[in-house]
Amino acid sequence: MNVKSFRGRRVAVAAGLVLALGCGVSVQASATVPRTVGGKGAVAACSQDVLGVSAVKEPADSQEARHLLLIVQNAGDKKCNLYRHPLVRLGADARTTVPVIEESDPDPGVPVTLAPGEEAYAALLVSGGARDEYEAKSITLGLQGRKIGSTAGRPIDVPMPAPTLYADDGQLVTYWTTASGFALDFIMSR
Questions:
Q1: Coiled-coil intervals in this record (predicted)?
Q2: DSSP code string of the chain
Q3: What's the rounded Cα separation, in Å, for the pair 16 and 153?
Q4: Which of 6, 14, 143, 148 gets the highest tally of CB atoms within 10 A of its CB?
Q5: pTM as predicted
Q6: pLDDT level of residue 41 (50, 70, 90 thresholds)
C-alpha cells in the first residue's frame, strides 16, 4: 500500500495522482484495480486499494473538531461503488460503529458510483452533547459491501484533522453522497 499526503480537500487526478506533501492529511492508494463483481461490466465495490481518504473540520476555521467531513476519492482507473454509509469508529477503544442518520440516504438502496478522480462525502458528528465524553486519537473507516452485512476490503485509518477529538455517545454519520453540502446539512445544526 502506498501512503502519501495531500493538502486541502481536493486531489487532482490527471496523468496520475498529484499529491502535495506537508499538511498531515494522507491518502491511501495503489495500482491495484478492484475485481469486478457480477457479470461483464459490473461495477466493483470501492476498497482501500483504490481510495484516497481524508477528514476535514467543518467549518474549516472552527476551533473544535466537532463536525467533520469524510472525503474519499477514487484514485483507481475504473469506476467503483460505495454502499450505504461508512462504518466509522472513533478511537482505538470504540466498542461499536457510529450510528447512521437514516434520513440522510439521498437515494435509498442505490450505491454511490465513483468514476476515477471523483469524490464522495459523509458527514460525521463527533459529539452531540456532553454525554460520556472521551478522547479519540484515531478514526477508522470501514466500507460496506454490496450485500447488507458484508464489508469491502480492510478498515482504513483516516488522517486526523486535529491531534485529539473529543467524542461522546451522541456521534452520528451520514450516508455517502456526492454532494458535501447535502451531507453536512444533517449534522451542522446538531
A1: none
A2: -EEEE--SS---BSSSB----SSS-EEEE-SPPPPPPSSTTPPEEP-TTTEEEEEEESSTT-SS--EEEEEEEE-SSS-EEEEEEEEEEESTT--SPPPB-GGG-SSTT-PEEE-TT-EEEEEEES-SSSSS-EEE--EEEEEE-SSTT-B-SS-EEEPPSSS-EEE-TT-EEPPPBS-HHHHHHTTTT-
A3: 23
A4: 143
A5: 0.78
A6: low
